[in-house]
Design goal:
The protein has 305 residues and is an alpha/beta fold. The chain is built from twelve helices and eight strands. Helix 4 packs across helix 6 (155-165). The mean pLDDT is 95. It binds the ligand CC(=O)N[C@@H]([C@@H](O)[C@H](O)[C@H](O)CO)[C@@H](O)CC(=O)C(=O)O. The site of the ligand CC(=O)N[C@@H]([C@@H](O)[C@H](O)[C@H](O)CO)[C@@H](O)CC(=O)C(=O)O has 17 residues, from helix 5 and strand 8. The ligand CC(=O)N[C@@H]([C@@H](O)[C@H](O)[C@H](O)CO)[C@@H](O)CC(=O)C(=O)O binds at residues 14, 47, 50-52, 147-148, 175, 197-200, 214-217, 251. Its main location: cytoplasm. It is found in: Cytoplasm. InterPro entries: Aldolase_TIM, DapA-like. Keywords: Carbohydrate metabolism, Cytoplasm, Lyase, Schiff base.
Length: 305
């Protein structure tokens, strides 16, 4: 069911990895999670084992198991199951890419290696070319997230090189606030998909033609974000701004409490009613289950629940 010829559009939820209280992966709730996204949030694309899913903190075996479960339960319900395969080791990354293809994923994506980093754009393209070649039948998306990877080559420059050397290259998951770089990518490479990854600034990216968005908040604010997308499509900027500002107010509330990914996971458990458990170490160290009522009350106050 690979994306061949299809365009990747709309909202993509970057899934959290369900875990037990001991931080082991808990695949028993994946089916319920898929149904929640489809039926309650109307979100039919998922990005598995990425940042939100703590992909880098999972073993290769765990990542394979999760990919299989998400693909299995997404079949016939999800439009696209995209598996993030990036690791620090090229061999592990290729292994995960080949596995994603064998288990029926629709596309793969990879970040740059982030410890021993590529020393040039050409080095990065060479690396990603090998990754994509391990799953040549699957569309390949470069995952640009400089705040975490520390690799911040201008995407506009990279894209031309990737197009030249990677036959399955189909676009970029752009998790950065450099809207000029993002905009010029869309302007110059009309045949590719560019998905924005800073949820609280999505409206800004739409102005420049974002084809879709990948993010953590679409797990529980997918339905609200769809209303913003619809308002933007209708040319109702006032309404679109109002919705984006509500989402921003919620994120400001979250950030003011010093919350990050561990708490985002908790917010998803509270809003969906699916127990996703704690994150894994090192994130687990400061994790405490926030009072669900605090989250619910704020979402309610903002009209987001
Ligand atoms: C740094 C980070 O985690 N960014 C998130 C955003 O969705 C982010 O959680 C959101 O904008 C709130 O800040 C995504 O870009 C990451 C993502 O899509 C992924 O999980 O791979």
């Amino acid at each position: 069911m690979a994306l061949a010829g299809k365009k990747l559009r709309g909202l993509v939820a970057a899934t959290f990895t369900p875990m037990t209280s001991r931080s082991d992966i808990n695949v028993s709730v994946v089916q319920e999670y898929v149904d929640y996204l489809v039926n309650k949030q109307n979100v039919k694309n998922i990005f598995v084992n990425g940042t939100t899913g703590e992909g880098m903190s999972l073993s290769v075996q765990e990542r394979k198991r999760l990919a299989e479960e998400w693909v299995k339960h997404g079949r016939g319900k999800m439009d696209n199951v995209i598996i993030h395969v990036g690791c620090l080791s090229l061999e592990d990354t290729k292994d995960l890419a080949a596995h994603a293809a064998s288990c029926g994923a629709d596309a793969i994506s990879s970040v740059s290696p982030s410890f021993l980093k590529p020393s040039s754009q050409d080095a990065l393209v060479l690396y990603l070319k090998e990754v994509a070649a391990a799953a040549p039948s699957l569309p390949f998306y470069y995952y640009h997230i400089p705040s975490l990877s520390g690799v911040n080559y201008q995407v506009r420059n990279l894209v031309g090189k990737m197009q030249l050397h990677i036959p399955s290259f189909r676009g970029v998951k752009f998790s950065d606030v450099n809207l000029m770089d993002f905009s010029l990518c869309i302007h110059e490479y009309k045949e590719l998909d560019f998905l924005f990854g800073v949820d609280e600034q999505l409206l800004g990216s739409l102005v420049f033609g974002a084809h879709g968005a990948v993010g953590s908040t679409y797990n529980y604010l997918g339905s609200t974000t769809h209303k913003m997308l619809a308002a933007f499509e209708e040319g109702n900027l006032k309404k679109a701004r109002e919705i984006q500002c509500k989402i921003q107010e919620f994120m400001a509330f979250v950030f003011a409490l010093g919350w990050g990914l561990p708490e985002f996971k908790n917010i998803m458990s509270v809003t969906s009613g699916i127990d996703l458990g704690p994150p894994r170490l090192p994130l687990m160290a400061n994790w405490k289950q926030e009072h669900p009522e605090t989250v619910r009350a704020e979402l309610k106050r903002l009209g987001l629940m």
